[in-house]
Amino acid sequence: MFIGHYAVALAAKRAAPRASLGALVAGAQLADLLWPILLLLGVEHVRLVPGLMAASPLDLWDYPISHSLLTLFGWGALLGLLWFALARDVRSAIVVGLCVPSHWLLDWWMHRPDLPLWPWGGPKLGLGGWRSLPLTIGLESAMFFLGGLVYVRATRPRDRIGRFGLAGLLALLAAAFTSSLFVPPPASERALAWGALSMWLLVPLAAWIDRHREPASAQPVA
């Protein structure tokens, strides 16, 4: 899953108005943010197999640190504690932390049975939604629309950046999702990892845009 994870981050803003959208994006996408780093370090591994599934050529046979359910709960606890240290807000720290294991639950719908429960063997799970391109497009698009709608209703722009910056971010994510489905895969696993590192840029971008918005319930400035 791709934009479905961003949908979770956008919707989570309603549950934690004091949490930065950047922190929520970092939580929902932490597994995929760590993954290319671990690939480049040779700690985790992937194979590119064109035609493997209709919506993904990735044979994700070894990623126990970034994507096992147990480690994601651990990463979530660490990220939640970090956010609490920065914001001193228990509610937003809990929501940011819970966004991390939500990644596994959403991936479970789309992946083949390759998602580990823990990093030292054991069963691997996945329902294989990526085998169907219409299902992938329909499910992710619906989630993205609903997540964006929740965020828009939970916040309001302070200025032009808050209004048009958000529109630009949503358009960028939609374009990236479309290209991931219809553009040929990278030439190598290493090129894939380097390209995936660009997802880190979305964290500060989301934080910057979010600073130009405010909770919809806030009193307007006179």
What does this structure look like?
The chain is mostly helical. The chain has one domain (3-212). It is built from 10 helices and 6 strands. A two-stranded antiparallel ribbon has the order 1-2. The chain has a two-stranded antiparallel sheet with strand order 3-4. The protein has a two-stranded antiparallel ribbon with strand order 5-6. The protein is globular. The mean pLDDT is 96.
In short:
It is built from 10 helices and 6 strands, in the order αααββαααββαβαααβ. With 222 residues, it is mainly alpha-helical.
Radius of gyration: 17 Å
What's the average pLDDT?
96
Q: Order of helices and strands, N to C?
A: HHHEEHHHEEHEHHHE
How many structural domains does the protein architecture include? Answer: 1
**How would you sum up the global shape?**
globular
| Helical fraction | 55-70%
- Main beta sheet: strand number and arrangement? 2 strands, antiparallel
Beginning-to-end CA distance, first to last residue: 43 Å
**Alpha plus pi helix count:** 10
Give start-end ranges of low-pLDDT stretches. Answer: none
Q: Estimate the strand proportion.
A: 5-15%
Q: Strand order, biggest sheet? A: 1-2
Helix and strand content put the structural class at mainly alpha
Number of strands: 6
